[in-house]
Amino acid sequence: MTNKIKDILKTHKYLLLSFFLPVLLLEGIAIAEKIQPFGSESFLIVDALHQYLPFFADYQEKLKSMDSMFYSFHAGLGYNFLGLWAYYLASPLNLVIALVSKSMLTMILSHLYVLKIALCCFTAAFYFRKRRGKDEISIVAFGMAYGLCSYMVGYSWNIMWMEVMMMLPLILYGIDKLIKEHDGRLYCFALFISLWCNFYMSYMTCLFLILWYLLYSHKNVKEFYKWIPLCRIFTVIWSNGSSCVTASLPWDHADILSQITISKRIMVWNIWKSVFQTFSWDNTAYDGGR
């Protein structure tokens, strides 16, 4: 058993280092900044403290009391809790809050933030290792560059988005396996988990995947067109599988999303209109200047 553990540590030492090094770094920051339990401070800021923390407190109470997940009376006259859970709380990692007391909730969420950052570094390092085909020190550097990038730091208070960033490298590796090995299971599973945890950011992941596929190093044009139908099939599979989450959205959320979609279309049209006018010979600004 000991030899087996040694073999694992030797074979995957850099991959493991890409996880434990960010943990040590962030926990060191937690000690220096007196984050609970090393003091009275917290990593939770802005909306994470004032908006998301009460949601987690409500969720924790429901998990411990086995109360209904469909509705909550802990705000105003009550609200659709299932729709809120689908957007903010669906990550399986959040179940850890059921193991602690309410007084420790802020502390556990602060260190859950550390865990999620470390897992982002780990999955990125895993992708780079698979891409390069060997375990080397560079995967630690690039994995940490991904998990500790300015986007992660700047938006870390949106704790429910971090699972999507965690799954993105696995989704990209899933595309590699789908194209090279004709195996779409990882792609389907990783994308399903991503959408389950947060459909909002996963929607943006899907837009990114379109660009990724267009820029992917295909062998030839025939291969490019060959895999488009199969990618669409697997995407339909995970989207149907995770529709049980998005279907739980309350109607007012769906109305807001439709308004956002219309606004985005109008914005895109105005951008293209401005670009056309800028580069057109007969644009108004040029005539005025002339």
Q: Topology, pairings included?
A:
Elements: H1 2-11, H2 13-32, H3 47-65, E1 71-72, E2 79-80, H4 81-89, H5 105-132, H6 138-147, H7 150-154, H8 162-181, H9 185-197, H10 199-215, H11 221-241, H12 243-246, H13 251-279, H14 284-289
Helix pairs in contact: 2-5, 2-6, 3-4, 5-6, 5-8, 8-9, 8-10, 9-10, 9-11
Describe this structure in words.
The chain is mostly helical and 290 residues long. Helix content is 73%, strand content 1%. It contains 14 helices and two strands, in the order αααββααααααααααα. It has a two-stranded antiparallel sheet with strand order 1-2. A hairpin with a 6-residue loop joins strand 1 (71-72) and strand 2 (79-80). Helix 2 packs across helix 6 and helix 5 (105-132) runs parallel beside helix 8 (162-181). It is globular. 30% of the residues are buried.
